[in-house]
Write a structure and sequence with these properties.
Layout: E1 3-6, H1 12-15, H2 23-27, H3 30-45, H4 58-74, E2 77-81, H5 88-97, E3 109-111, H6 118-124, E4 133-139, H7 145-162, E5 170-174, H8 180-187, E6 191-194, H9 208-216, H10 221-234, H11 244-257, E7 262-267, H12 273-287, E8 289-291, E9 297-300, E10 303-306, H13 317-322, E11 327-334, H14 361-378, E12 383-388, H15 393-414, H16 422-435, H17 441-453
Parallel strand pairs: 2-3, 2-4, 4-5, 5-6, 7-10, 7-11, 11-12
Antiparallel strand pairs: 1-12, 8-9
The structure holds 6-O-phosphono-alpha-D-glucopyranose.
6-O-phosphono-alpha-D-glucopyranose (G6P) binds next to loops.
Length: about 450
């Protein structure tokens, strides 16, 4: 595993004192960081914060591999039904390590319909044969409306194709006991994998949530968790100035205090593109909070934005270089691409193309990254780089763990609970109420009254 973090362009010496951080400023957080580290260690040991232990669950990996090897032979298609933390990690693994164009992988063909757009879901039916499809339903709570709805949608076709044997094409990943998927699984012999109760959805990628689709696609899941375990060691370093999770958290904490409320993740790699989607949920849901742990209203958080290099240089970078200086940009860089064929100028009459001669697309991409980095730095825009030696399972696993540990640290520095999501719950409850779910009658009445009173302004 080789993942390196380059923080040079947040340091005041390179960025200027108005927007750069003094080393002593970061250093001044070390003492608080130590207290946060102790607190997190206690929680990891007491098993209240389960994501720390996910890279070491060997029995779970063996169970997944055994299941996946059999499933690869039995099924031609795999459909992953889940949303948010139950989808973004698995998608990121698939597009980074398997097939960067969705849905085109070899058998079994893999699909992640993580939305309830009826036309999109309907289109999927054209690409699969339901009777030869494994549906993997993933929901920590076992009740999320979108996931339940897509399960019911496909059930119609499963019942048509397989009659009472429909359950043979279903597997669930959910809480060990709680939730409606367990009620179904008690009735039918459906294979269930478990998300430990102490692992929140957005911290669950290294559990069966992310590893089953990966194993079915033929990704080396042992390498993913090996990379994560190596990174876990680095993130446990007592020397906090050498601890990548702490430094990442401290830098962002200090910038949040300075009003830099946007966190842009910009991979210069299509394969790493969806890691930024995964990061968005992690950073947004964990740190976007109204109250701190003492009950004070703090309304903290950073809005995570996804951009893609070099594509978005031609769309977003103008704003990043000259617009409001309210962002911290995180580049993801690949040092060694797998394919690096040299270009040749086939139009010698066009001398302007000669600078491409012998250069590869990878070189162009990385020079473009360097150029954007320079432009940002010269305009006092803080930016840092997470360098992947290559796009490998080890490095992707390490990336997941790094950002999870950094998020936990950042939550501690901000003195907020990084592991709940009360704001999202409000929307979930309102959806249940509007859909007329049992037990939500009072809420439904309240919402309908509220909607009636609302002044409308439709143009
Ligand atoms: O895995 P599930 O329980 O179905 O939850 C799916 C998602 O639901 C909500 O949106 C939560 O805020 C997310 O954190 C969670 O990942």
């Amino acid at each position: 595993m080789s993942l390196k973090l380059d923080f040079s362009n947040v340091v005041d010496v390179n960025l200027g004192s108005e927007h750069g951080l003094g080393m002593e400023e970061i250093q001044s957080l070390v003492e608080k960081g130590r207290r946060v580290q102790q607190e997190l260690r206690k929680k990891a040991e007491a098993d209240t914060l389960g994501f720390y232990k996910l890279p070491y669950k060997k029995d779970v990996f063996t169970e997944i591999l055994t299941f996946a090897n059999a499933a690869r032979k039995r099924f031609d298609y795999y459909v992953h039904l889940g949303i948010g933390g139950s989808a973004l990690g698995p998608i990121a693994i698939h597009t980074s390590l398997k097939d960067s164009y969705y849905n085109l992988s070899e058998s079994p063909k893999i699909f992640f319909p993580d939305n309830v757009d009826p036309d999109w879901i309907h289109d999927l039916l054209k690409h699969i044969d339901v009777s030869r499809t494994l549906f993997h339903v993933v929901s920590k709570s076992g009740a999320t409306a979108e996931t339940a709805a897509t399960l019911l949608y496909f059930m119609k076709y499963l019942k048509e194709a397989l009659k009472d044997n429909f359950y043979k094409n279903l597997i669930f990943t959910t809480d060990p006991v709680e939730g409606l998927l367990n009620v179904i699984a008690r009735e039918y012999p459906i294979k269930c994998f478990r998300i430990p109760p102490n692992v929140g959805g957005r911290f669950s990628v290294l559990s069966p949530v992310g590893l089953i689709s990966a194993a079915i696609a033929g990704v080396d899941i042992e390498a993913i968790v090996r990379g994560a375990a190596e990174m876990a060691q680095q993130c446990d370093n007592d020397d906090l100035m050498q601890n990548p999770a702490f430094v990442f958290a401290a830098v962002h904490y200090l910038y949040m205090k300075r009003g830099k409320n946007i966190s842009v993740m910009m991979p210069y790699s299509n394969k790493l593109r969806d890691l930024a989607d995964w990061y968005r949920q992690l950073w947004a849901e964990s740190l976007g909070k109204r109250y701190d742990v003492h009950g004070n209203v703090v309304e903290v958080g950073q809005t995570p934005v996804k951009a893609l290099g070099a594509t978005d240089q031609h769309s977003q970078v103008q704003l990043y270089v000259e617009g409001p200086n309210d962002k911290v940009i995180i580049f993801l860089e690949v040092e060694q691409f797998e394919h690096n064929e040299p270009l040749h100028n086939y139009f010698p009459q066009i001398g302007e193309f000669n600078y491409f001669e012998g250069k590869s697309l990878g070189q162009l991409l990385n020079y473009e990254k360097q150029a954007t980095e320079l432009a940002l730095t010269n305009n006092q825009r803080p930016n840092l780089t997470i360098k992947f030696s290559e796009v490998s399972a080890e490095n992707v696993g390490a990336f997941f763990f790094l950002l999870e540990a950094a998020t936990a640290f950042a939550g501690g520095l901000l003195e907020i609970n990084a592991f709940d999501q009360p704001g999202v719950e409000q929307g979930k409850i309102a959806t249940y109420a509007l859909m007329g779910r049992k037990g939500y009658d009072k809420k439904r009445k309240e919402i309908l009254e509220q909607l009636e009173k609302k002044r409308s302004f439709v143009v």
